[in-house]
Each structure stands twice: as structure tokens, then as C-alpha cells.
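Q: How would the C-alpha cells look for this protein?
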Amino acid sequence: MAINTIKNEILSPAGSIETLYAAIHAGADAVYIGGQLFGARAYADNPDCTELLKAIDYVHLHGRKLYLTVNTLLKNNEIEEKLYNYILPLYEQGLDAVIVQDLGVFHFLKENFSGLDLHASTQMTITGVDGALLLKKMGASRIVTARELSLKELKTIHDNVDIEIESFIHGAMCYSYSGMCLFSSMIGGRSGNRGRCAGPCRQPYEVYRNRKRQNDQNSLYALSLKDMNTLEILPDIIDSGVYSLKIEGRMKSPEYAAGVVSIYRKYLDLYLEKGRDGYHPDKSDVKNLSELYTRSGSVTGYYKCHNSKNMISLKKPAYKSDNEQFIKDIHEKYCSNKLKYKADATITLEIDKPMKLKISSANPSKKNQQNLAVLGDLAGKAKNRPVDRSNVYKQINKTGDTFLEFENINIHMDDSVFVPVSRLNELRRKAIEQYEEQLLKHFRRTIFQCEIPILDDNERRNVKKNENSVFNKQTVHNSDSVPLISCQINTQDQLESALNISEIKEIYISTDILAVNECVNAVKRVLMSQKTACILLPYIYREHAKEYVSDLIEKLKNLIGGLKAEMPALIIRNIDELGMVLENHYQNFRIDSSLYSFNRYSKEYFYRLGARMVALPYELNYNELKNLTDSRDEIVIYGRVPLMITAGCVNKNFYQCEKGKNKVLQLKDRKSTVFQTLCCCNFCYNIIYNSVPISLLGVQKKVENLPAGNYRINLTLEDYNESVDIIEKCIRLFINHQQVEESFELTRGHFNRGVE
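A: Here is the predicted structure in C-alpha cell form.
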């Protein structure tokens, strides 16, 4: 007897149509696949629209589902000119769901395809109840959690939010928190947010602490995680509330997908039937799974471990498979032919009556089983030689490349009946076509009225004008106004530098390494200096962060009450913090660049929710910013870009855990480029910064041509003197319009080049 009332879903990757066929054949309940546009695996063998339409029908005929990945950040023109026409035929065909990262895309699809399920991608970095609840209210039917969550955290989400949970159970893991990585983008121009990650975490790095090397030639791969393999703890994951068990690997072979799916299919069914007492994975299955294209060994991920050196490969990561016979068996069983729909046929041939072919499901328990009878031409009386029963069987059994095959063919025929072979073939083709249509017709959809009209590709699509559309509300920038310059600080020295410069009117106090009392004192000093204080919340909002933020807000309320001042603005860095401020009705909040506003749809959605300001992302170039920016927005003009936010701790892995002692380590790559790594013990994460800061001081005219209302200086690792120098240069250039020299190593980031 099954122990669960809801059968869990095994979700397989499909980087190609061939992989989709193999995964379905091996027992996947659903597949996720990208098309030619907007998928996070731009280099996979993604199918075109025609192939996707056929794939949707194929999975539905077998009672399975297909989820389309639209899990990249989209630019304005991509949403306005391509997205609607891309989704429409797939939606009408019966597409089951779309996996989405971009909140602008999410909102667009919700407005224009109301019957389509939306799954919040793991790249949204959902880590708790607050984010899950917000997405539920927005209309998501499912959340894909960050890989870093523990079983306890998953159970908390499950117990508090009525939404499907999808979590990874097998495959490669990113070192960075899902969606919080700009490493590939900033050092090589290949953006992970656009499906083009070059995998810098898989490269060798020398690790330094206090100028002393911490690793040797046998442990250079400091950021390369081993692959995830959770077969041994699958019952724990299911019991924590995970509904969809997701396998990573859209860049991998059909044999990989089919092999992994087949083993998890076997043991999921075993657990659902016999429970924990009957769940004992066979050693041969464990061995086969662990040897199937694994990268330097495997671990059970973060489910039972926050971070560990054991999770890092250390040695050069390389896919290998040590069991060629298993791969061969998988290929022959699942990859050499497509799964067929099993049906029974009954043909009746009676003299002077229409031929009749009835098709029915061979498995009455199938969800999509149907019965269908089709009539053909009149059968005649044989003049010389009646039709042979074996020949009737042979012709009806010629299902060839169709979706089904007959398990049983029942023949009822008069002894002297005659029908031409061509008529039998025609009847078979007609019956199979109609049976397929009958099985699929309830999946079809029609849009009678849409927010955005279908236009030719060379026409610019405009959003339907109506008084409720937030996208028609544009703030007009006053070209005579002078943008404010705000300054983010991480340390007490940086705070002193910002306080001493009168032109800095706003100071953003980062919580990354300051203790709660230090933040409160910093706010007090900012307010006493007649400046505006803002609080940068943590990059990741898990239990440590929740406790910290709750304590901080309570103490700030006490401080503000005494000073009779306004509460500092909270600057939101992730979807969970956005959910938290909305749930608690905080009125004064802003959006940081890590919660991406890549297009006007996402940006305007944040403003609609009540944001006072939005910091635009680092990956847009000048022309894209020009088409997006208005006077409510903020642009970073100086600062080191956080390339990665990581649960893994470089200091712990190569030295020791020093809880409460924030450290800066260095990672040196093969080109001797050094990346500073800040260990933020407040929240137990690392920030890996770019080797040089972004500076827009040398492109002043272009910056001033953008109608942003706020320029921002991000101080991260600078000392007091460096901080003063940078702030003063920004003031002289952008406020006093005096010439300055950029006397430090720098990059323009994507301001000139952008990303594909």
C-alpha cells in the first residue's frame, strides 16, 4: 500500500528531442526542455518550434508533461517583439508549464497566457517561506528551490505555503547560489543569466590567506563542486515535502538522462509502495548511478550539510563513466527506439457492411485512455479468393512510425469477405489519426483575446493601452535636476569617509560584515549628520539572516522613536526579502541590482509593488540602459561587482571555520588575476568580488545622458584613504563637473559591450 496520497514526479532534463524520447521511455513523469530562445542552456541541441509541438503531443500521448525553460533574463525588445509569438503556438498545443527566472517575463506571461502554469526557476534563488508565499500570490504553481537548502528548510516551506516544491536530486551543482553568479559574464562576456555560462568555477585557483598559500597542486579546484547523488536519502527528500524530483543535465546525453531516470524511477516506486522499511537501494544500482558521467565523485548535496570541504572536487573535474556495459544496456533499452502507446485493435469485416476498426487502450488504468471506432468502405463478397486473416492482421499491424503499437489485434470477419489491401491500410491510417486527435484534443487551447496582438517580426509590438497597465506609466526625467550620489559602506572606515563629505546625502549601510549594534550605531551617526540612512539587507535570506534582520529592525525602531526620524529604507537583494517587506507592509524599500530589473516589465513590477527606487543591473549596456532608465532609477558608477555569493566557504575549506571573524582571502587564476573573497560570517556566505572595480568616471557624458535620478558608489574592500579618494573624484566629476583622473585599475564592465 502506498504511503503517499500524491505520487511524486520524476523530472528529467532534455537537451535534445532524442534525450526527451529516452527519458520518457525510461520512466520520467515530465521533462524540461528549452527551445531556440530564452533557455538557460543556449549551447544545448535545443529543438525548433515544430519539433517542440511534436514533443508536446508525444509526452501527452504517454500521460507525461513538458515544461519549457524560459529561464533567462530578457531585454525589452525580446519581450516586446519575440516572447508572445514564441509562446503562443506552444500554449495552444497544450504546453504544461513554463519555467521562469525573470519577474518581468513572469508578469508578462501571467497577463497574456492566463491558463499556463508558471514555475519559479531555481535562478530566482528561493530560500524560504517569504519568497515562496510571494510567488504563490503572484500566481506561480510551483517553486524550484535553491540547491543550498536543507531538508528542514524545505519542510518549513512545505508546511507553510500551499505550493508545489521542485528540488534537484541529481547532477551538477553550481558553486554560487542559484542565480547569484556574474563570474562568467564579467570575466569573459558569457552570461549565465543568458544561458551562456563558461564555467569559471571549474577552473583552477590558488588560495591565499594573509599572503600565505593555502592549497597545493593537488587541490587547485577550489570552487568545483562534486555532483549531487541523493539515491540513498531519497525518502528524506520526499518526506520533506518535495513533489518534483529534478535531475540536472540538459547538456548531457540521452544515455545519461535515461540511465538516471530509470534508477530513480525504480526506487521512487519502491518507496511509494513499501515505505522506508522496504527502501534498500541495490549495490549494483548505486554503483551504476555513481559511475554514470559523474564529475570527480558525488555527494548528497546540501540537504544534510550547510557546506563542507568534502563537497569540493579539488582535483580537475572531468566527466567519466566506468561502466560501459550499463551505458550500452541503457542505450539498447531506452535510446534505440521510442516508447509506443499500447493499444488494442478490433477489426470487423462483414459482407455488404462498412469495415469497422475499433482502437482502445491496452491499459485501462491509463489517465488518457480512450476508445474509438472508425468506419471504412463496404466490405464485399469474394468472387474468387477471400481476404486472408493473416493478411488482415499484417496490414492492421503496420503502425510503423506512428505513436502507437497494437498489443492485441482481434479480427471478426465473414468467411468469404473481400477487401482490397489499400482500403485496409487507409482504414488503419484514418483510425490511428483520429485516435491520436481524440487523445490530444483536451490539451488544446485557444486564445480569443490577448493583451498583445500578433505582429510580424519586423513590427514593434506595443502593450495594450488600458488604464490599469503599469507599463504605460513613465516618469518624465527633469533634465535640469542633478542626480544624487549615494555611497554604500561595508566598514567603519568607509562610514567615516562618507560622513566627512557633505555632498554625500545618502549612505547605504551593508549588513554583510557589520554586527547588529554596529549597524544601529552607523544609522544613528548618519542621521545625526543630517544624511539619509539606508540598510542593505543580506544577499541570502535564510535563518541566520532572518534573526539578524528581525533584531536589527526592532532596534532601529527604538532608535528612530527617540530621534523622531523616518525608518531607514530597506534595500532588497532577493525574492525572499521582497516577500518579507510586502508581508510586513514596509513602505520604504528599494530594489538592489541583484534582484534583476533587466527590462521595463520587471522594473515596473517592482515599482507597482511599492519600491521607491530600483538599482539597474550590471549586464546592460549604455543603449539598453538608455531605453530603460528614468528618474526613479539608480546606476552604480563605481564598485567591485560581486561575482558569486556562495554557501561554500573558502576559509573553512582551506583553513578553518572562524565563526564571527570576517576574513578576506584571495583566489588567483591561471592568468594571475586575483579575486578578493569576503567571508561574511553574519550569514555564513562568501562574496567573491571581481578583480577590479567598475568605474564609469571615464564615460561621464554617456552616464549623464541617462536620466537616472541616483548615482551610487559601492565601497567594498577599500580603506579610508582609498574611499575618500574615490568619493571625492565622483563628486568633482558628476557634481562639480571638473576633470578627474582614474588613477586605479578598473573595468567598464558591460557598459560598453553588454551581453548577448
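The chain has three domains: 9-173+225-314+322-335, 341-443, 482-640+695-734.

The radius of gyration is 30 Å.

Upvote if useful.
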